[in-house]
Amino acid sequence: MAYFENINAIKYEGASSKNPFAFKYYNPEEVINGKTMEEILRFGVAYWHTFDADGSDPFGVGTAIRPWDHLTGLDRAKARVEAAFEFFEKLNVPFFCFHDVDIAPEGSTLRESNQNQDIIVAMIKEYMATSKTKLLWNTANMFTNPRYVHGAATSNNADVFAYSAAKVKKALEVGKELGAENYVFWGGREGYETLLNTNMKLEQDNLARFFHMAVDYAKEIGFDAQFLIEPKPKEPTKHQYDFDVATGLSFLQKYDLADKFKFNIEANHATLAGHTFEHELHVARINNMLGSVDANQGDPLLGWDTDEFPTDLYSTTLAMYEILKNGGLGRGGLNFDSKVRRGSFDVEDLFHAHIVGMDGFAVGLKVANKLLEDRVFEDFIDDRYSSYNEGIGLEIVEGKADLRKLEAYALELTEIKNQSGRTERLKAILNQYLLETITK
Ligand code: XUL
Ligand code: CO
C-alpha cells in the first residue's frame, strides 16, 4: 500500500524549477571536491518527528491525522515502517534515526516492550535489505515514561537506573542488529529542578558509570558504533548536565570517557545554551569531537526548542563551513531533528519540510566550499594572528617565554598597534559569496 500516493520520487530540477516536489539546490550526484553531495551531507530522517508526531503541544491536541492513524499498537507500528521506507525512497535519503519507543509501542512490562521491538526490528531489517537507507543512529527514550520523572541514569532511584540500563542494553543490541553507524545519548531528564533535593555529585558519578557500562557492553557484543552525547542546556529539566559541548567535554575528560565519545550537535540546543550553531560545531571540531549533527533551527522570538526545519542560509553555510573544515562528518550525518509546524498538518508538508532543509544545506555546502577554496576567512585569520609567527609571539607559542622575559620585552615597547578586526567587511564578503552561489 502507498501512503504518499500523490507524491512521486523527489528529483533535482535546479534553481529555476517551480515544482514544489523537486530539489532546487540539492543534487545528490553533484561532485564537490571529489565527493558527491549525498556522501558529504549524509541526510537522515528523524522517525519520531516524521512518523509519530501529530502536532500536539502543551496547549492543544494533535492536528495531523496520518494515513496510519486509524490503526493502533503493533499494527500502527508496522504501517509506520511501511510508510517510512516509502518516504525514504521517495526523498532519496541515505539515513534515518529513531528512539526505541518511536518504532514499537511500549508494553506493560519491559519483557513485552522488548518483544514488540523484536517484531518491528525484524521488519525494519527486512526493508533495509532492499533499501539504500541505513541507520545513522538509534537511542533509547528515557524521558517520556513517568518512571523517568527524576531522571534515568541520574535518578535518585536505583531501580530506575537499572531499568534504564536494561533499555540501553536492548538498544545497543538493536543498533548492532540494524548496523547503526552511531549510538546517541541525549540526557532528556539527566539534570535537576532544584539543588534542594539533589545530590549532584552522585548523579554525575552515576551517569559516568552508566556510560562506561554502555561502552563495555557494546564492545562485548561487537557493536562498533560511534558513541555520541547530544548536549542541551535545559528543557525538559531546568538544568541539564550535558549543557553544551564545553561542559560535556569536561565531563567526559573527568570520567575517562573522552576517547569513547563524540558529540551530536543540535542547532536549536546550541542557541538554547546561548551559543550559535557554528560555535558548538567549532568547539567540537577543534577538540576532535565532532561526530554528528541534529539539523534544525530555533526561533529567536521564542525561548524553547522549536525544532524548526532549517531554512536560515547563513546558519547552514556557517555550519557547513565547520563540517568541511572538520574533513566531513565521518560516520555522522545531518539528521533532521525537525518538525513541521502545527499548522502544517498534511503529509505533503513532510516532503516540503525535508526538501527545504536539504536544499538549505546544499546551498550552505556550496557557499562554504567556495569560501574555503578561496581561503577568504582563513587567510584573514592567518594574517590576524601573524604576530605569533615570529619574534616574541613565536617564543610564546613555542614555550620559550616566561613572565620575566615578557616583562623585559614589554618595558622596551614604545607603542602597541592593533589592527581592525574588519567584522563588517567580512560579513559583506559572506553575503557576496552567498548571493553569488544562489544566483549562479
Ligand atoms: C530533544 C532531542 C532528542 C534527541 C534524541 O531535544 O533533540 O530528540 O535528538 O533523543
Ligand atoms: Co536532537
From TrEMBL:
So what does this thing catalyse? alpha-D-xylose = alpha-D-xylulofuranose
Quote the InterPro entries the UniProt record gives: Xyl_isomerase-like_sf, Xylose_isom_bac, Xylose_isomerase
SUPFAM superfamilies the record matches: Xylose isomerase-like
The entry's free-text remark on the cofactor is: Binds 2 magnesium ions per subunit.
Instruction: Please give the family membership noted in the entry.
Output: Belongs to the xylose isomerase family.
Q: How does it assemble?
A: Homotetramer.
> What is the protein named?
Xylose isomerase
Q: Which organism is it from?
A: Metabacillus malikii
Q: State the organism's lineage.
A: Bacteria, Bacillati, Bacillota, Bacilli, Bacillales
